[in-house]
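So, does this match?
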Amino acid sequence: TICACSSRTFIDRVAVAKVAALARQAGMEVTLLSDLCELCENKSEAVREIAQTTIVACHQRAVKSLMAFAGEDNIRSLNLRNQTAEEVLAALGIDGSQLSSLDSSQTDEWMKQMEAMPQRLGEDAWYPVLDKDVCAECGKCLEFCPFGVYEMVDERIRVVHPHHCKNNCPACARTCPASAIIFPKYDRSPINGGEEKQERAIKLDTKELYAQTLRERLAARKIKPIIKNWKE
């Protein structure tokens, strides 16, 4: 199973098409997904089937946490976000030297599939997942988030309302002392589940961040009746 992350550009489409073509050529069953995050958010029945396959997607820590959120703990994943097609193929037991001999007739089918996938940047699935291997259950994310994304369930922090999260906002991850909060679609590590420290841990004024987010939420509520009255 390969996630093309159709609404973002983190995973190279040409690399996806090449891996898919050679995997099929090697006799493997290949399925392309437009957005693994969306399937996991909705806890789709397809997630159970996906868990039985090798998942080629983004950072392994992110994929592990995504699938655990959807109820699947035992998975195998490969990282096409920052590894080459040749490296991913090698992990699948496929000779990557065949990449140079691929022609467009072998990859066109996969490229067309990806071109037909929905692209909903700003409206696609965006929400946090938790790395429970490092989460300290301190509750800082619960205290900080004004949108009700998190809840304490049986004395453990849970992402209960992922669809409440504000798109492209990773602020709660920056407040986590354990770096346990992952936004798979964020552009920098470790917030996106990567192992590199591309984004320094910074001390934030969490009260000000909370106040700013709350102001935005209240402002959004005020706009709705104005629009409604105008239509009437």
Strands lie at 2-3, 32-33, 54-57, 76-79, 129-130, 150-153, 156-159, 181-182.
